[in-house]
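Subject: for your reference before the review

Hello V.,

The reviewers asked for a structural picture of the protein, and I figured it would be easier to keep everything in one thread rather than splitting it across files. Below is the amino acid sequence we used in the manuscript, unchanged from the supplementary table.
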Amino acid sequence: MALPIRDQLKYWGIAAVVFMVTLWFLGQVLVPFLLGGAIAYFLDPVADRLERLGLSRALSTALITFIAILIFVIMALLVVPTLVNQTTSLVETAPRLFRDFTDAMTTRFPALLDEGSTLRSSLTSVGETIQERGGQLLETALASFASILNVILLFVIVPVVSVYLLLDWDRMVAAIDRLLPRDHAPTIRKLARDVDQTLASFIRGMGTVCLVLGTYYAFALMLVGLQFGLVVGFVAGLVTFIPYLGALLGGALAIGLALFQFWGDWVSIGLVAGIFVIGQVVEGNVLTPKLVGDSVGLHPVWLILALSVFGTLFGFVGMLVAVPLAAAIGVLARFAVDRYKHSLLYLGTDQTMADD
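And here is what came back from the structure prediction:
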């Protein structure tokens, strides 16, 4: 005999409250484990494919771990120092860029930037603020990031957790499946498959798109000769998971820097703009359709709302769980709408009798 709906809602409600309380009180402790779980989830299809090629799960995990360590070492030696140096230089150079922009505007449009004008005062104030606070803000952000994640947790616990979870992923899924309520197991499995499909399309697909585009933007901008091209490419690739935002933000930043660096050299400025046009065309027509698919189920507005709400409530750990929870809520909402459309509340008794 199935449990009454009221009791089911009570138990599921208690489970949701326990989950929220756990995030609230143990959020920072859970960060390395959530990061490790996300990495294991991302790499599980690779391990499954290696198993189908004949390797054992242990050998597959060992091979993936070796390649990951190799990539990490290359990044640590080559990319990360350059990225940090360019970011620091960009913060230090920003006041000079504002002064050059003000001088250029004064020369070309003297009426707009007369002494005492609102626009001139605003630009001067922004430049002084960046000069005074830019380095301090960067140091504060880096210190906060280090305090939240903790270097030891980030570089020791996260890889260890990732390896163990990747090794035991299939066994964990099977164990959870055995604990499902028998009456609702088929429905829960279907919902879990839908959530997994949504997450796989979005996280794995968009993660790959972000990596490809970020690498393309960074190398292309550096080949053109744009200063801070690595930083701009990194930023553009990082926010590509929100459609058009990566191209708009990265393009505006890159073109703005190009105007200062290449003023008068319109070919170079056009090349910088063309890089983002090509990137957007390739993303929209090749990368996103092939790697993400047409029906992800995560609307950009819904995603931004989830990130904002969970980030505000639970901080960094809230942002980590925002995407999976947004995908799960979206699947549950579609499931509820489907059930509603087949219910008496929607169809009415007359329609039900007519169908009979």
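For the response letter, the relevant points are probably these. The chain has a mean pLDDT of 75. The CA atoms of residues 2 and 182 lie 10 Å apart.

Happy to draft the paragraph if you're swamped.

O.
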